[in-house]
Amino acid sequence: MAPSIRLSPAARSIFDEPLAIAVQGLGPRQQVTLRTSLRDETGELFQASARYQAGDDGELDLARCPALPGGSFSGLEPMGLLWALQPQKPFRRLVKRDVQSPFLLQLEVFEGHGEAPRRLLAQAQHERAFLRDGMRRVPVQEGRIRATLFLPPGNGPFPGIIDLYGTGGGLPEYRACLLANHGFAVLALAFYSYEDLPKEMKEFHLEYFEEAVNYMLQHTQVKGPGIGLLGISKGGDLCISMASFLKGITATALINGSVANVGAVLRYKDITIPPLGSNSKRIKVSKSGIADIIDVLNNPLEGPDQQSFIPLEKAECCFLFIVGQDDRNWKSEFFAVEGSKRLQAHGKEKPEIICYPGAGHYIEPPFFPMCAASMHLLVGKPVEWGGEPKAHCEAQIDAWQQIQAFFHKHLTGKPSRISSKL
């Protein structure tokens, strides 16, 4: 019997779900190399490979067989061929630009363990999709809002969440879309460098974000009385600012966010919060030209920089801080701890802080490969994001569960522990 690849689910799976990979019809204890390839929408190629040895029965199940040294990873890693995907050109990060089409994953099995692939024994293709059947994707242009709303199948209303990305700008939809697959109405919100929104990150007006909050609160498919916020990086400090000043927010989850306003002036009515000071002389550049920017920002506890600290004690919501302890973008753990101290000093509930050793800055939904370094729009050169691939992958799987549990707990009307101000 000729070797063949067996996948479960067979032809198509949702990107944040595991994919079971096995090879059957090999010789007893036959040595093979498995390779996965995927092209993003710009044509960039990402690949991973691993060396294996079939069992005595000629079966190779990645859930039971450890990868041998010499490939992209080793050990028992059923999803290694996905999380270990690396760009063939440096400084590229795998993102999904159009959630309406799947990523096409190519799997190949080669004979032996040599450096150059030997004879091709078997191959298969698999679609890694983002939209579940029945999911509704609704482009939103209401007033100034530029966004995309994802609504799960079935009759709502659903717990509502606004999702914000960072300094990359534009309108990334893939995390909002994947989260909506789990029963939430999620609004992916653009805030600059998209359509008719400001081209640069110079100043932000919270009134824009307030429009988005009100849009969600008034939507017939969104279950009140409050909504959730999810933000990564710069999107994190914007979420903290929204929670601190705007009404109708019940739960805020930050992924490697800052508790100080960063990168642009923030205005709301007669309030102005300046951006945290920084010093580009503190950038360290390696021989390979990659910048280490971990020390660039000033300390928001000192001198005039205290004015950049967002008054999160004003918020009337629960907070969850997801922290990659190897984040090289900025000091996420320090920010989370200082935010927690500030909340408790004002008699507020201690936020939940979940720290992941070995995780870098870009903690994405599960099975996105870790990006160790890529271009930073504001720095103008590639910067290191930190992280160790296996630990980072495990952090992404756990953080995704923690974020969903946090929002289900606080948005679905189960008794929450928030004490009212009355």
From TrEMBL:
Pfam families assigned: BAAT_C (PF08840), Bile_Hydr_Trans (PF04775)
Positions of the catalytic residues: S233, D327, H361
Species of the source: Menura novaehollandiae
Assigned keywords, A-Z: Fatty acid metabolism, Lipid metabolism
Domain BAAT/Acyl-CoA thioester hydrolase C-terminal: start-end pairs: 205-412
Top-level division of the source organism's lineage: Eukaryota
Name this polypeptide is given: ACOT1 thioesterase
Highest classification ranks of the organism: Eukaryota, Metazoa, Chordata, Craniata, Vertebrata
GO process terms (BP): acyl-CoA metabolic process; fatty acid metabolic process
